[in-house]
Design a protein that fits this description.
Blueprint lengths: L10 E2 L7 H4 L24 E2 L15 E4 L5 E5 L2 E7 L23 E8 L5 E8 L3 E7 L2 E7 L5 E8 L5 E5 L2 E3 L6 E8 L8 E10 L5 E16 L5 E6 L3 E6 L5 E6 L11 E3 L2 E7 L7 E7 L5 E6 L6 E5 L2 E6 L2 E5 L6 E5 L6 E2 L7 E5 L5 E5 L7 E6 L4 E5 L3 E5 L5 E6 L4
C-alpha cells in the first residue's frame, strides 16, 4: 500500500450500500438535539478511509469483549445490541464451528440463527431462528430491533420486528420499512432495482405502519417510482417525491395530503433531495447559461422554492450537521446556509477524516501509515478530536450507542470497544 501523502486508497469496510434500509437510519435533524450517544444509535455502518497523514497522538482502544463468528456472518449493531446472523444448525445440535458460529455443512436449509449480544459487555441476550435470506441487517427503533432481509441483488424483501429485550418476534412483513428514531410509524415500501442499485427508488403501494403492531394505518400508491422519506417533528410527516417531480407532504399518522408541489427534473434518490430541519435541498441540472448543476432549497410548508444557486462542488458527500447541511470534499468541509444558500468553506489538511455511516456524522476514521485505524469525534469539523486507535487489520466496523464493533484480521472474531463519554 502506498504511503505517499495525498494518494487516495478507498477501503470499503461495510456490507450494505445504497439501500433504503441504510438511508432510513439517518435520523431526522430535529431528533438530533440530544446526546452524542443517542445520535449514534441504530447504526449499520460502512467505513471509507483515506490512507496517509501523520500518526494521531491518541491511545489504543482496548477491547472489552470478543464474540466469535463465522467469516460469512451478517453483523449489525442496533443501539445497545450486537446482532449476528448465521445459517442455523440442526435442531438439538450445538454449533460445531471452532469460531463459535455455525458450521456451514450442518446448517438447516431455509433457516438463519440470529443472536443478540449486550454492548459493550458482549454477553448473549437472546437467540432465535428466522427464515433465511441472502443477507440480514438489523437496526434499532425504540424497544424494537428491525431485521431487514435482502435477496441476491440487495433488494430488501422483508422486515421482522423483534423485542430488543427478549428476542421475541413481534411481527413480520414482506416489504422494506423506512423509520426514524422517536417516531412510532414507519413507511412500508417495495424497493425497485435500477441502474444505481437496489433501494434508490420505491414503487407501487406505500403503507404507513404502526411499529407497535406491524399493522397498516393507511396506504397510497405511486403511479411509477418515487423516493420516500419519514420526517420527525411535532407532527411527523411522510414526504413522497415522484419521478415526475410531484412532491407530496402527508400526515404520517393519518395519511391526509397536507400540501403538494413540483420539483425540477433531477436524479431523485434517498439523498436527493436531502431533508434538513424544515426544508430540503435538491441537486438538479441548472438551466442557467454556462452552469451544469444547481442546488435549490424548498420548504415543507408549501413545497415552495426558497433559493437556488449554481452547484460548483464536485465529489461531495452530504452530511447533516445538527440541522445544517454540510458537504465534504477532498479539500475540506463546507456548510450551506439554508436561509440564503450562502456557502462557508473550511480547508482541511488534504487528507480528510471521513464519517462512519450511521454515526450522525459525529464519528470519523482514518487509516494511519502503519495501518492502524484512527478514530475521532467531531466529524463536522476539519480538525476532529482524536479518541483512540484500533489495531491494524480492523475492518467491518460498526458504531452503536456506547461501543464500536470491528471484525479482526482473521475474520473470525468481533472485537468490542467502549466509546468514551462525550
Amino acid at each position: 500500500m502506498s504511503q505517499r501523502p495525498g494518494e487516495w486508497v478507498v477501503i470499503d469496510l461495510g456490507t450494505a450500500h445504497g439501500t433504503v434500509d441504510e438511508e432510513r437510519l439517518l435520523p431526522d435533524p430535529r431528533a438530533r438535539g440530544r446526546s452524542w450517544r443517542r445520535r449514534l444509535a441504530a447504526a449499520t455502518a460502512g467505513l471509507v478511509l483515506v490512507c496517509g497523514g501523520a500518526a494521531t497522538a491518541s491511545p489504543p482502544f482496548r477491547p472489552t469483549a470478543a464474540v466469535p463468528v463465522e467469516a460469512g456472518s451478517s453483523v449489525s449493531v442496533a443501539g445497545d445490541l450486537l446482532v449476528v446472523a448465521d445459517p442455523a444448525p440442526p435442531a438439538g445440535i450445538a454449533p460445531t464451528s471452532s469460531a463459535g458460529g455455525t458450521a456451514g455443512g450442518d446448517a438447516v436449509e431455509g433457516l438463519v440463527e440470529l443472536r443478540g449480544y449486550d454492548l459493550p459487555a458482549g454477553t448473549q441476550r437472546w437467540r432465535l431462528r428466522l427464515p433465511a435470506a441472502m443477507s440480514q441487517s438489523a437496526s434499532r427503533v425504540g424497544d424494537l430491533v428491525l431485521v431487514a432481509s435482502r435477496d441476491s441483488i440487495r433488494r430488501q424483501t422483508g422486515t421482522t420486528a423483534i423485542d430488543a429485550a427478549t428476542g421475541a418476534v413481534r411481527w413480520s412483513r414482506d416489504d422494506a420499512l423506512l423509520t426514524v428514531p422517536g417516531v412510532e410509524t414507519g413507511l412500508a415500501v417495495e424497493e425497485v432495482r435500477s441502474a444505481s442499485g437496489a433501494g434508490r427508488r420505491v414503487a407501487g403501494r406505500i403503507d404507513a405502519v404502526d411499529l407497535t403492531t406491524g399493522r397498516s394505518r393507511w396506504h397510497t400508491r405511486v403511479p411509477s417510482t418515487a423516493v420516500a422519506h419519514v420526517v420527525a417533528g411535532d407532527r411527523p410527516l411522510a414526504v413522497l417525491v415522484l419521478d415526475s417531480g410531484r412532491t407530496e407532504v402527508r400526515d404520517l399518522a393519518g395519511g391526509a395530503l397536507l400540501r403538494a408541489g413540483s420539483l425540477p427534473p433531477a436524479d431523485y434518490a434517498p439523498d436527493n433531495p436531502r431533508l434538513v430541519a424544515d426544508a430540503f435541498v435538491l441537486r438538479h441540472p441548472d438551466s442557467r447559461l454556462g452552469q451544469r448543476s444547481a442546488l435549490s432549497a424548498y420548504n415543507l410548508d408549501d413545497v415552495g422554492l426558497e433559493w437556488s444557486r449554481p452547484d460548483r462542488a464536485r465529489d461531495v458527500r452530504w452530511a447533516d450537521c445538527d440541522g445544517k447541511l454540510c458537504g465534504r470534499t477532498p479539500e475540506g468541509i463546507w456548510t450551506l446556509d439554508l436561509d440564503n444558500g450562502g456557502l462557508a468553506f473550511a480547508t482541511g489538511d488534504g487528507l480528510p477524516w471521513l464519517p462512519v455511516r450511521g454515526s450522525a456524522d459525529q464519528l470519523v476514521f482514518r487509516l494511519l501509515p502503519d495501518e492502524r485505524v484512527a478514530v475521532a469525534s467531531g466529524g463536522t469539523t476539519t480538525s476532529p478530536r482524536p479518541l483512540g486507535t484500533l489495531p491494524a487489520g480492523s475492518r467491518d466496523c460498526r458504531a452503536g450507542e456506547t461501543a464500536l464493533v470491528c471484525r479482526g484480521g482473521d475474520g473470525h472474531e468481533l472485537a468490542i470497544y467502549s466509546l468514551p463519554s462525550p
